[in-house]
Amino acid sequence: MSRASPALPFAVAAALLASAPAEAVELTIWHAYRGDERAALEALLVQYDEAHPEVELRPLALAYESFVTKLEAAAPRGNGPDLFIGAHERVGQWSATGLVAPLSLDTSGLHPATVAALTYDGQLYGVPLAYKCLALYYNTDLVPTPPRTTDELVAQAVALTRGDTFGLVFEADAPYFFAPFMHGFGGGVFDAAGEPSLASAENAAALAFVADLARVKKVIPEEPTGALVTQLFNDGKAAMVVNGPWLLGELKPGLPFAVAPLPIVSATGKPAAPYLTVEGAMVSGFAAHPEEAKALALWLAGPESALKRATQGRQSVATLATYDDPAVAADPILSAFRAQLDAAVPMPNKPLMASTWEPMAKALRRVMRGDYTPQAALDEAATELAVTTRPEPPAADPTFAWIALGLGLAAALGALGRQLINPAVRADIKRWAFAYLYVGPAALAMSVLVMLPFVVGAAVSLFSHKDGQFTYVGLANYLDILLARDWPITSALSFYFTLVITVLWTLANVVLHVGIGLGLALILREPWVRLRGLWRVLLILPWAIPNYITALIWKGMFHRQFGAINAILDAVGLEPVSWFASFSTAFSANLITNTWLGFPFMMVVTLGALQAIPRELEQAAEVDGASAWQRFRHVTWPLLTPALLPAVVLGSVWTFNMFNIIFLVSGGEPDSQTEILISEAYRWAFTRQARYGYASAYAVLIFFVLLGWSRLGNRVAGRKVL
Amino acid sequence: MSQQSQGGAPSVPVLLATHLVLVVTTLAVLYPVLWVLKMALTPSQAFSMDPMPFPTEVSFQNFREVIGTTAADGSWLFGRQLLNSLFVSAVTSALGITLACTAGYAMSRWAFPGRDIGMSMFLVTQMFPGVVMAIPLYILLDEAGLLNSMLGLALVYSTTAVPFSTWNLKGYFDTIPVELEEAALMDGASRWMTFTRIILPLARPALVVTALFSFMTAWNEFILAATFMGDERAFTLPVVLQSYVGDFGTEWGRFAAGSILVSLPVMLLFFALQRFLVEGLTAGSVKG
Amino acid sequence: MATLRLDGVRKSYGDVPVLHTVSMNVADGEFLVLVGPSGCGKSTLLRCIAGLEDISAGDLHIGERRVNDLAPRDRDVAMVFQSYALYPHMTVRENMAFGLRVRGAPEEEITRLVNQAAEMLALGSYLDRLPKALSGGQRQRVAIGRAIVRRPKVFLFDEPLSNLDAALRGQMRVELKRLHRDLNATIVYVTHDQIEAMTLADRILVLNGGLVQQLGTPAELFDTPANRFVAGFIGSPAMNFLKGNAQGGQVTVEGLSFPCQTSGEVEVGLRPNDLVLSRGAGPQATVDVVEHLGWEMLVHLQLGAHKIAARAETAVMGSLKPGDKVAVAAERAHLFSAVSGLRVQ
How many Å apart are CA C264 and CA C249, to the nearest integer? Predict the structure, then answer.
């Protein structure tokens, strides 16, 4: 892999810059820190900047969510950072794409586990700065001494679980939180040879242990989300929680708590070992100034910086000497995490790891819901992993594609030419020449900024992607999807299943949006309704708030045990619902959220359309003796539909691709059954082996389905709607 | 159905029932919004799971922290980013409406060859899943030297807003009688003058609504903004908002406070422009 | 003011002709009315003159200038639309000033001309209102005002009175007539109402199905209609037609005889006021319906196989009831070939 070549021009530029006297070198540093950690880091960078006139530092804090995408887009094109601070788990992938440069340095002062985490294939790719892992938080009022073994843990948890208080609270259905027990029982995601081993007997034993805590002993509440964990611990209703250092920022001041390492698993005698996430300073493979970047990285890991990060940033640092400092040694929390570090398993940094989360999470939820035995659920997960990580389709000969492309272009140009030869068309074009001036700017902008990127993006569907390399595979991605080669058609992961769900989703939404919007519009147009302006303004509020915010809020409201919806159901004497445990309720939860978001648009459109219908027509019908329903059915509705149809078709197109709601509310629960096509495409691109080609094929298929959908809309309407 | 005697007020039970429907719907609409407000006003960063949508303790600390964000050099970031958001959204709005109003007018009035295909193509772009377009767009902007530029960002946003805008404006232009333009032509106005002096002033409600839509497109977007902008001082507010959602946990208090700050201008615009909202969205309605 | 000349003007949409060859001269200061049933092509002809439609063949001259390829604004014509087409967002003053303003007239000139036109049309107190605050008649006057401020070479009116009620229409007719006199303007006026045509026009052009039927003064059209269509269209109440067979220099229908130089099938046209009713001898008709109009009445009669209408003075005939028998006599008849529809002697 010739990863030096793209960087070459920059290296030359750097050399030129370096030769210029007194010209400070600009060093860009990207990180995703917030709060105290960010403040500590930025203070250190200012300090370094002042001490080193030869460099000028340009730090940039990015949102975690956009960090990786941005890095992977920007760095290869020379727009990335020289140095970035990132979690180690993508090092395997980044080393393959040349995003991180290998480093050699003296690692003696650093904890070996943190060094191991940043090493891939025997090569170190970053300077370990800090680490994060889970530990046991406990409420010191309820738990005087923390449990040392799982037997003690279970005994204490059971004893403390009573009323609305839970003994042990953690996100038991999330693989990251399950990992300590998995490791403690001797299991793991990969076996000693590095092969996936999701369905090992050890993993099953660990899962059985956790399921027993949740389902039989009920020391863990239902649907233990992160928010719930925090809230219960803050309210003193969780005796112990398993969580990481980030919890500290969310705890109420004055809460009596302490942190201890996780207990020894009594069944095996091994410690419950959480995943270790190491934050390393990595020199970009595309850095303009790799030497200066490395110098800064080393300084950041050095004792002075590490101490500041530990004391000011409250960060668990990788530098061992720091823990000898009296101030750090006296900090019980830092000490507890330092102790946990000795029994932590670096999260595997091979690319395959990213694909294990989804099947594992699904297995955990299946067991927590009681639908599967641990072994059966893990067997399914192993199968699913095998499919998502199956080898890419073989490279195909692009000759045929070139020929097809050539023929297609020739045919298109021929058709266009034939039109242009036609004198009538030519005369028409000449006659309307001015019209093209009016349409031109928009058409040009659309072609360049929408059509072109889409065509390029769509072309990716003919390729497979691995480690930044794209290989032409012909129609293999389409065939895999359309012939349901990966999953049987009845599987929730098959294209056809998802398509059916997507259509159902779209239809249900459109019916509800139009129904509610229309009903409210009919009410709001009546002159006798009091405070019409006020109602109208309040009812369009959901439209004004970004939907990713409200989606998260609704997700919280649908919580099984603590959500507002179930509280209301309970108050009116109904049974609470496990919203995300079954398809129909999870689908309904998505639907309710999206209806809340979507009806205002339809209401406003309907209000506008109703204004254009003369009331005399309804009055005439009333004089003719028509009932309210007959008037609506035979007068208002037929006049309304022509105006509503375009909005309905457009609204359905938007709903069809309404990614945010599905992703943030149900997240596909249960078992990917509520995924829609767009969220599946997203998963293929970002959580399943970065199969961009496969994801792009999904996107192209979505496009064609929608095209068909709008044609169908025209057919139903009996005229051209869109 | 709520339809009652058209002339006077309906009977008391109908009156009560319709207002009950309004009250219940409005409560359902407001409930989640109140919740955001509650989390924003509660000093904790935890997600509130309590069904009561009213804060037990009120503090403006989250707002203070969000608004008071400063850069490493101590300069006031929030103000800067608010200005960025306003600038990008305003430019998007202006650009989008400029592109869309001429295109929508031409499509409404003139049957030039290629019009129908053009119309379809515009709307078909609404069906492109954005997920495949981010990286090609990135490369495109980079090649054009428009990366890290507010103008580049606004250009991209305006093209995503153009199809709906064109379509909505075309629908509205369709309802403006052709005689008005003919009268202007007879009066001696050029084609362009007729458009700017007669049609555009008459299409004001639709222009306002369309501009509001373009504005919101830009105002709420964060994925492209985060990818295209390389400097904290160039970020827009939603990008900042997103950074409260972290790898391991979310700073809910600040996130909620930020959400409210982000939503507030749009809400104010809605209130101010709600008259136009209904008038301007009659897209494709009956000719008047 | 200027003359207007049409030479062989034709208009078709694709392969469908809407105007066959139209040729005519409109003199300077002449009031020409285009009349015909709806869909006859009269509005299209007007729009061709205005420049809102291209003509497919022929020549169009305004003054000495050939204007076929000129844009409307370069033809120096003004048009009053059926719907008035007032700019809703502009006040009356702005509406009237728009044409001057886009042509870059100086502000004081605009003010002067607008005020002058407003005075002429009694719009002075409405100048700062929006069109929506005006009544139909006022809007109509604003539309006319907008046309006259520019002092164009030719005025075009497209059914300007059809949206007004009957009383207002009569009043506006008089105003238009006066306006024409005061301005001494060349006017082309489209209407489907033959009364408007008769009362306003210096000359009338009758169109049917895109074909010119007759061009002449109102009197010519009324007295010597060129064909059966014009005869039936002009005059109110409409002419009665009776089918007959002419032989030996005369035609007899239902007992009424008229000299006729041709022979064969003819249609005999009798205007209701050319019929004389009496209680005496002669061909007898049965009264069907009587419409009282005050000093006269319109009597619908069954005459043999034909239904006819006749005018009678109330004072002369006294009261008539359905079923009464009256004698019919005719003072004058128009004869038309039953084959070609053309006037015959």
Answer: 10
- The 10s digit of each residue's pLDDT in B215-226 is 988 998 888 888
pLDDT at A22: 53
Mean pLDDT of B24-37: 88
Residue C343, chain B, CB below 8 Å: the answer is no
Of C52, C146, C150, the CB nearest to B185: C52
3-state helix, strand, coil in chain C (%, to 5): 30, 35, 35
Phi, psi of A28 (to 5 degrees): -95, 130
The pLDDT of residue A596 is above 90: yes
Q: How far is C44 from chain B, CA to nearest CA, in Å?
A: 14
Helix (H) or strand (E) holding C213: strand C211-216
CA B278 to chain centre: 15
Q: Does C14 touch chain B (CB under 8 A)?
A: no
Mean pLDDT (chain A) is 87
Based on the domain organization, do A332 and A364 belong to the same domain?
no
Residue C320 φ/ψ, nearest 5 degrees? -120, 140
Q: What is the span of the domain harbouring residue A625?
A: 495-674
Chain C CB contacts of B193 under 8 Å are 102
Q: Looking at residue A617, what is its pLDDT?
A: 81
> Under an 8 A CB cutoff, do B186 and C88 touch?
no
In A305-418, beta strands by DSSP E: 345-346
- pLDDT tens by residue, A528-577: 888 888 888 888 888 888 888 888 888 888 888 777 888 888 888 888 88
pLDDT single digits (tens) A624-637? 877 888 888 888 88
Q: Is the pLDDT of residue C168 over 60?
A: yes
Q: What is the rounded distance in angstroms from the CA atom of residue A702 to the CA atom of residue A505?
A: 14
- Looking at the complex, report in whole angstroms how far the Cα of residue A237 sits from the nearest Cα belonging to chain B: 13
Confidence of residue A717 (pLDDT cuts 50, 70, 90): low
Q: Where are the domains of chain B?
A: 12-59, 71-238+261-280
**What residues in B contact C51, CB-CB < 8 Å?**
185
- Of B18, B26, B227, nearest to A529 by CB-CB distance is B18
Q: Which of these ranges, A52-56, A324-328, A354-358, B230-234, has the smallest mean pLDDT? A: B230-234
Residues A180 and A286 in one domain: no
Q: For the ranges A257-271, A483-497, A577-591, which has the lowest average pLDDT?
A: A483-497
Question: Could you tell me which residues come within 8 angstroms of residue A490 by beta carbon, excluding any fewer than 6 positions away?
Answer: A497
Residues of C within 8 A of B187 (CB-CB) are 73, 78, 98-99, 102, 146, 150
Chains that touch B (3 or more CB pairs under 8 A): A, C
CATH code for the domain defined by C240-344: 2.40.50.140
Query: Which residue in the block uniquely carries the two structure tokens 């601070």?
Result: A85
Would the pLDDT of B156 be above 70? yes
Question: For residues C231 and A645, what is the distance between their CA atoms, to the nearest angstrom?
Answer: 51
Alpha-carbon distance values, B118 to A419, A679, B199 (Å): 16, 29, 22
Residues 139-158, chain C, touching B (beta carbon < 8 A): 146, 150
Q: What percent of chain A has pLDDT over 70?
A: 96
Give CATH for domain B71-238+261-280: 1.10.3720.10
User: What pTM, to 2 d.p., does this model score?
Assistant: 0.82
10 Å CB burial of residue C267 (0-12, 13-18, 19+) is buried
Chain centroid to CA C296: 25
Contacting chains of C (3 CB pairs or more, <8 Å) are: B
Q: How many angstroms separate the CA atoms of A184 and A192, rounded?
A: 15
Same domain flag for A193 and A286: no
* pLDDT number for residue B105: 93
Please check whether residues A285 and A234 belong to one and the same domain.
no
Instruction: Please check the confidence at residue A3 and state whether its pLDDT lies above 50.
Output: no
* Alpha helices (runs of H) in C51-120, residue ranges in sequence order: 72-75, 92-102, 107-120
